[in-house]
Design a protein that fits this description.
Length: about 110
Amino acid sequence: MPEISIDDFKKVEITVGEILSVERIEGSDKLLKLQVSFGEPEPRQVLSGIAPYFEDPQVLVGKRYPFVTNLAPRSMMGLTSQAMILATGGDAAVPFNLFETQAPAGAKAR
């Protein structure tokens, strides 16, 4: 992967979001639809391919994780995603992991 400058990295906005609700998306084995509070007036819809890692995705409700919040919206399965949750692993070499935090919704990573 190519190196990026610190100026490029500074363009990425990482914000803590609290998951308010989770739904499986009909027709997809991978996608979950999350409603996430970032401390803004309205929650954002986030689509994420993390469904295979959760027998009961409702365990995510009420938890806070870092998200990239300044990505351009992306359409998937007829729905729009307005951010991306940060995670690692999910393959044979590295177990899947989310980065739960106690920081409040809307807190920015620096």
